[in-house]
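Example 9 (inverse folding). The structure is encoded as follows.
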């Protein structure tokens, strides 16, 4: 097992270099970099976020674009060339791209993510500050999803082919097919003062007077704000775990040891929870770390923006719009690294809960 772990850890190095390298290369051709943003502010010709996202506007620099003054930044006419050089040096664009990439990766290996271009704070402090909101969404989505999906999957396995199994499968598939952000918009229209009811708050994780509330009022206020975002994310989170649980139980129920247990006179409940359950749940339990990471990041960007939750998803969105590259690359690096580590952890959990699995005898 030690050799397998070492190989997986070594493979993380080229994987991370590939992920960061491709992203860095794409950024080099993306219009409207941080220098252009400052130039736009200095010339009073700033543009909207929508224009920046779509690549519109006269200020965006295109590859090879040069304004009338000879500057490679459109909209820089009339500005002192020395000022442009200072801006390039401030943002690190005075160095060749390969040099910038090597320096960035060397700093990231030491978890030195530098300073934000526009927020006057270190990147790691910003990430830590926004993380509680995303953790709140991820933890509750995972717990509620597992609490519903596992019992539902067991019931579907027991009643495989029944009317209950068929219609619940239909509901699950439809819910999985509906994007969470569309369901979130529907919830806002229905229950957050859109066109019908005004029962739930539209923005934030807590109320403005949260500090003045008693402890039980704080709990109620917290879940009151989380009700709609969690519902929007949960609607599409049941399918995978539910169907995985069902198929795993069906596979175990058909094995010989279950027939033997029934022949010995054990009741159906004893067979199901005394023998089948611990074997069928191996694959579900082993996927727990991956499920947490998926719940932690999947859908958070759109949901956090729709419900104005100041978490990592919203931070990443605003950083992309504003071309705050240190935050963009730092979050990408952290998320990618966590994904690779969790993938390895899932494999180790497999071997822990089922010693029959031996990754040493398999290719990585």
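The amino acid assigned to each position is listed next.
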């Amino acid at each position: 097992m030690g050799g397998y772990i070492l190989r997986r850890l070594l493979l993380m190095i080229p994987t991370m270099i590939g992920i960061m390298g491709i992203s860095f290369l794409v950024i080099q051709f993306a219009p409207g970099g941080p220098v252009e943003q400052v130039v736009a502010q200095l010339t009073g010709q700033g543009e909207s976020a929508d224009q920046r996202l779509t690549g519109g506007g006269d200020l965006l620099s295109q590859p090879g674009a040069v304004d009338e003054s000879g500057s490679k930044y459109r909209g820089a006419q009339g500005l002192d060339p020395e000022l442009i050089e200072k801006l390039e040096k401030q943002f690190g664009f005075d160095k060749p791209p390969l040099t910038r990439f090597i320096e960035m990766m060397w700093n990231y290996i030491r978890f030195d993510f530098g300073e934000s271009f526009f927020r006057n704070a270190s990147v790691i402090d910003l990430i830590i500050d926004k993380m509680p909101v995303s953790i709140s969404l991820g933890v509750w989505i995972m717990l509620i999803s597992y609490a519903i999906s596992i019992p539902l999957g067991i019931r579907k396995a027991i009643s495989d082919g029944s009317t209950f199994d068929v219609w619940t499968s239909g509901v699950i598939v439809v819910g999985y097919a509906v994007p969470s952000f569309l369901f979130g918009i529907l919830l806002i229209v229905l229950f957050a003062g859109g066109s019908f009811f005004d029962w739930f708050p539209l923005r934030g994780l807590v109320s403005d007077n949260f500090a003045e509330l008693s402890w039980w009022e704080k709990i109620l206020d917290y879940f009151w704000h989380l009700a709609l975002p969690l519902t929007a994310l949960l609607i599409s989170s049941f399918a995978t775990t539910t169907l995985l649980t069902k198929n795993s139980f069906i596979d175990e129920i058909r094995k010989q040891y279950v027939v033997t247990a029934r022949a010995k006179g054990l009741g159906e409940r004893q067979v199901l929870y005394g023998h089948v359950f611990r074997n069928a749940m191996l694959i579900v339990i082993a996927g727990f770390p991956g499920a947490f990471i998926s719940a932690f990041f999947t859908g958070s960007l759109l949901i956090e923006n729709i419900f104005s939750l100041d978490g990592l998803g919203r931070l990443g969105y605003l950083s992309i719009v504003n071309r705050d590259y240190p935050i963009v690359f730092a979050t990408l690096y952290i998320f990618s690294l966590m994904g690779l580590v969790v993938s390895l952890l899932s494999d180790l959990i497999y071997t822990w809960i089922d010693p029959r699995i031996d990754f040493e005898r398999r290719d990585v």
